Amino acid sequence: MTISRRNLFKAGIAAGTAFAMPSILRAQTTAADRTVRMVLGDLQVFDPIVTTSDITMNHALAIYDTLFALDSDLVAQPQMVGKWGVSDDKRTYTFELREGLGWHDGTPVTAADCVASIRRWGQVDPSGQLIMERAADLASKDKTTFTITLKEPLGLLIDLLAASSGRPLYVMREQDATLPSTEQVTANIGSGPFKFNAALAKPGSTVTYDRNEHYVPRQEPVSGYAGGKVVNVDRVVWENISDSQTAVGALQAGEIDFLLEPPADLYPAIESDLNLELKVLVNSGMDYYVRINFLQPPFDNVKARQALLHLIDQEAFSAVVSADPKYSGVVTSLFGKTAYSNDENTGWYKKGGDPEKAKQLFKEAGYAGEKVLILAPTDWAEGNNSSQLLANALQKIGVKAELAPMAWGELATRRGNKGLTANGGWSLFISSQSDFSLGNPIGSPFFLANGENAWYGWPKSDEFETLRAKWADIEALETRKQLAREMQRVWWEFVGTVFLCQTLTPTAHRKTLNGLISTEGSYRPMWNMEKVQA
C-alpha cells in the first residue's frame, strides 16, 4: 500500500465513508439491539491453561467463573465462594461454594470441580505452582466444601487464587480439569455469565456468546473483575476483522459496536466522529516489550541480549504505538509504574538509544550473521509496526533481521516452538501486558526465569529465581521494595526481556454501548455493558 493510498484511506474514514463489508456482516447489523458486536482478535485457542493469550483469557472470562476476583482496588473478593475461613495456625483454608452455581450443561458445580481445576492450573501457572508446592492436602469435603491444607502458612493464598494476570484460575468441570495441562479442553462448558454458542462458531470469522439465563450474579455491585456479573444483552458476537482500518470503518458504519485496539493514527478520526468514543479501560496502561529466545543464537549469548537494551529507542517506539504523546511514555523499571518501581541498574537507558553500543555488544557476543527472525502480528497494528521498527533498528547496525508476518493467533502457537528458525523457531517477538501485572512477580509468567520451564523465550537465571522465591513470604512493603531492587539489578544483567515503551491504549466504541467496565488488568469483561438508543 503506497503512502498516498493510505492517506486517502484515512481521509475516507475521517469523512465517515462507509466501507464495503462482507454481505454476511451487513446482514447481521439488522439483528436485535440486544446483540453486541465486538472486535477483540482471532480466537484460536479456547483453553486458558494452554496459553496466556489475552484473546483466550477474554473468552474464558466470559464462559467460566473464578473462586475469587480482584475488585477495582485490587482487593481479592469472593466470587464462586460463599464462605471461607482459615484455621488458627494459618495452615488450613476451608471454602464453601455459594448457592446457585451450575454448569451450562445443567449439572451443579461441585467442590470436586474446584479441586480438579486448582490441580490442573497448578501444573502451569506460577501462582498455582507455588500453592501446590506449599500444599500438604487439597481435597473436597462434601459436594460444596473443599479445603487447602498447607505445609506452612502462605499469607498470599487468597490473592494468588484471585490473580487477574497470566493464567487466572478459571474453574472447569472435573471431567475437563482432569485432562493433562498439555491437552486442550474443547468442550467450552463453564458456569459463567455467558454460554459459548458452538452451533454458530465459525473459526477465523466469528464466535458467539449467549447470555446464560441460569447464571445467578452476586449481590455486590460490579467492581473491577469482582461483584455481580449482570448480563444486560442477549448475545455477544466477536467478529474477526484482521485489518484494523477496516475495523474502524465497520465501527463508523455501525457494523460493530466495540473495537479493542484501534490504530493509533486513527484516534483523531474516531474522536471527531460524534457517534464514537475513545476510552481507556485498562487503567494501569500497557507495557510493550520484546521477548527474547534464550535457546538459540545469537541471543543465547548475554551480550547480544544486552545489545537490545542499548539499541531500543523508547521514544521512537512510543511514537509508533501512539501518535498522541499523552497516551505513551518510557518504562525502565522491571516493575513498571507499580509500587515497586525503582531505578536500580537502569544506566543502560539513553534517550534515543545507543546504536553504537549495541553494535559493539553484538560484536563481543561473536555475532556471525545469524538470521534474527521476528514474529510480526499482522492483525495487531501497533505490534506489527513495532516489529518493523525493531527489524529496521537491527538492520542498521548490521544484524540480519527478518520479519515473519502472521496473524496473532498463529503467533500465539508458533512462539511455543523451541527449535531453530529454520525449523519453525523464532528469535524475537513483541507483546504487551498490563502494567499492574508487573507488581506481581509470583503470579505473572512474565517473571519466570527457570529456563525451559519459563514463559516463551525461556530465560534462565538461578540468582533471579532465588530472589523471586522470597517474595511470597515477605509482607512488609519496604522489605518488598528492597527485594524488588535486587531482582531488578539481576534482571537487567541477564536481560530477561526488553521494554519498548508504556502506553495507555484506548478502546473505541459506539456511544450506544454503555456500562463498559474499567480494570487494572487487560482482560475484558463483557458483563454489565448494555446497548441504548442513539
Structural key phrases:
534 residues; 23 strands; alpha+beta; disordered N terminus; globular
Provide structural commentary.
The protein is an alpha+beta fold and 534 residues long. It is built from 16 helices and 23 strands. It has helices at residues 3-14, 23-28, 54-63, 111-121, 126-134, 157-161, 174-177, 244-252, 267-271, 302-311, 314-321, 355-364, 381-396, 408-414, 462-470, 477-494; strands at residues 35-39, 65-66, 68-70, 76-78, 81-86, 92-97, 135-140, 145-150, 170-171, 194-196, 206-211, 235-239, 258-259, 276-280, 286-292, 328-329, 372-377, 401-406, 428-434, 497-503, 506-510, 513-514, 530-531. It has a seven-stranded mixed beta sheet. The chain has a six-stranded mixed beta sheet with strand order 16-20-15-19-17-18. A four-stranded antiparallel beta sheet has the order 5-6-8-7. Strand 3 (68-70) and strand 4 form a beta hairpin. Helix 10 packs antiparallel against helix 12 (355-364) and helix 11 packs antiparallel against helix 13. It is globular. The relative contact order is 0.16.
In terms of topology, how is this protein built?
Layout: H1 3-14, H2 23-28, E1 35-39, H3 54-63, E2 65-66, E3 68-70, E4 76-78, E5 81-86, E6 92-97, H4 111-121, H5 126-134, E7 135-140, E8 145-150, H6 157-161, E9 170-171, H7 174-177, E10 194-196, E11 206-211, E12 235-239, H8 244-252, E13 258-259, H9 267-271, E14 276-280, E15 286-292, H10 302-311, H11 314-321, E16 328-329, H12 355-364, E17 372-377, H13 381-396, E18 401-406, H14 408-414, E19 428-434, H15 462-470, H16 477-494, E20 497-503, E21 506-510, E22 513-514, E23 530-531
Parallel strand pairs: 1-12, 1-13, 17-18, 17-19
Antiparallel strand pairs: 2-9, 3-4, 5-6, 6-8, 7-8, 10-11, 11-12, 13-21, 14-21, 15-19, 15-20, 16-20, 22-23
